[in-house]
Write a structure and sequence with these properties.
A hairpin with a 4-residue loop joins strand 3 and strand 4. This protein has 2 domains: 105 residues, Phosphorylase Kinase, domain 1; 93 residues, Transferase(Phosphotransferase) domain 1 (Transferase(Phosphotransferase), domain 1). By secondary structure, the chain is α+β, with helices and mostly antiparallel strands. The radius of gyration is 24 Å and the shape is globular. The longest helix is centred in the N-terminal third of the chain and has 30 residues. The protein contains 7 helices and 10 strands. GO terms for molecular function: ATP binding; protein kinase activity.
Length: 241
């Protein structure tokens, strides 16, 4: 009888401990939704044949430990560095999301999910991604001629009218693909000269899809909110949003 009582006691204590562990696990999941999204995010991307996952060590090495000499520029959500991937033998641009930026992390996930599915000659190619050691990074093809704003407002060489026409045509081709030709309508939002990149032949490569939204073609533009930079918006769009 004593042995039976002891066995019942052990089973009771074990059940209590199991419930405590289960509740802790559920609390962690509820308290950390980013962990859920990143886990499913990893699973979805690693099944595909698109951009590859890099380790932080690989990207740290490729940019010489993110040295100032390699910095190409910086924006509201991070800094961009010039890198070189030895195993792929290519130059890349590595965007490092600012640490602690919740909006930056959200845009990171949006950008990888959207641009990894798109294929067009006038869109920046996403080569890879990394979220490791609490850091979020994006790896793009390197654009030797930088962004359009550098040539319009900076110290770049003046653009001929023939070159400007070529750039406008390339941008229009990218937008036609995003709005009409892909399986869903990609509302790019926030198109400005700093997001229009130029390759070695001054071909347009539209980049930075962190604010992009995917909507079905039959739905109207009212499904997205105002998110662009003032000064690059059509006045009638602001008035009717």
């Amino acid at each position: 009888m004593a042995g039976l009582t002891a066995l019942v006691g052990i089973l009771f204590v074990s059940a209590i401990l199991a419930l405590v562990v289960l509740k802790k696990r559920r609390w962690k999941v509820k308290g950390n939704p980013d962990a859920i999204s990143l886990t499913s995010f990893n699973d979805d991307l690693e099944k595909g044949a698109g951009p590859r996952k890099f380790s932080y060590k690989e990207l740290d090495t490729s940019t010489n430990h993110f040295s100032e000499e390699r910095k190409l520029g910086e924006g509201g959500f991070g800094e961009v560095y010039n890198g070189y991937l030895i195993d792929l033998d290519i130059a890349v641009a590595v965007k490092k999301i600012s640490r602690g930026s919740k909006q930056g992390k959200k845009e990171y996930i949006t950008e990888v999910k959207v641009i990894s599915r798109l294929r067009h000659r006038n869109l920046v190619q996403l080569i890879g991604w990394c979220h490791d050691q609490g850091k979020f990074l994006l790896v793009y093809e390197f654009m030797p001629n930088g962004s359009l704003d550098f040539h319009l407002f900076g110290k770049g060489n003046p653009l001929s009218w023939a070159m400007r026409y070529k750039i406008a045509l390339g941008l229009a081709s990218a937008l036609l693909y995003l709005h009409e030709e892909w399986e869903q309508c990609v509302i790019r939002r926030d198109i400005k000269s700093s997001n229009i990149m130029l390759d070695s032949s001054f071909n347009v490569k539209l980049g930075d899809f962190g604010l992009a939204r995917l909507i079905d073609h039959e739905l109207g533009p009212q499904t997205t909110g105002l998110a662009e930079t003032l000064g690059y918006l059509a006045p009638e769009y602001i008035k009717t949003d």
